Every structure is written in C-alpha cells, then in structure tokens.
Amino acid sequence: MTPELLAPAGDWDCVRAAIENGADAVYFGLDTGFNARARATNFTLDDLPRLMQLLHRRGLKAYATRASTPCCSRTWAPPGSSGGSAPPCRSTPPRR
After folding, report:
1. Would residue 20 count as lying in a domain?
2. In terms of residue numbers, what domain contains 38?
C-alpha cells in the first residue's frame, strides 16, 4: 500500500500549488453549504468540470468534502433488531 499525499485546496491558487508540489490528491469544499471549510474561497458547482479536468489531466484524485454531524442521540440499528431504530436524519436544520 502506497501512502497518498492529500492536500487542501480552497481556491485555484491552492490547486495549482498542490499540483506543483507533488500532491496525489486534493480535497476541497463547495459553496453550496454543508462545508466546514467556511474560511476557504471554495468552489462552485460550475467550477467542477474545469477543476476535475485539470486534476485528472495531471493524474490527481479529487475529494469534495462535506461536513455532517449526528442528528440524533440514539444509535441506529436495523428495524426488528434489539437496538431499535433512530428517526431519519434531516439534511437541513428545521426553520424556527
């Protein structure tokens, strides 16, 4: 198993730096929410085709990050098991 150098890429300059410095892969956030990389510039959905083309042309992998948190305190178990079943999680918080 070969280690992989994974570099953060919050904007185009960071992507170029990762490529030039030998990264095997980059990870980045999207500006569509659900992203813990809020201080980074992030990429739009419209950027993805160009970004993926650049990375793949250079032989790099790409990982889009998504932040999530547990939405319930119970542990999920298949229905009918002794562990019970947790309610379905919401993808967005309820409006108040």
Report:
1. yes
2. 6-64
- Judging by beta carbons within 10 Å of its beta carbon (0-12, 13-18, 19+), is residue 9 exposed, middle or buried? buried
pLDDT digits (tens, 9 = 90+) for 15-44: 999 999 999 999 998 887 666 666 667 898
Task: Give buried/exposed letters for 56-69 (b at 16+ CB in 10 A, else e).
Answer: eeeebebeeeeeee
> Looking at the domain assignment, is residue 45 inside a domain?
yes
Question: What SS3 class is residue 28?
Answer: strand
Across the beta sheet with 25-28, the strand order is 6-8, 25-28, 61-64
**What count of residues does the chain have?**
96
pTM over 0.85: no
Q: Is residue 90 part of a domain?
A: no
How high is the pLDDT of residue 56?
Answer: 95
Pairwise CA distance, residues 9 & 40, whole Å: 8
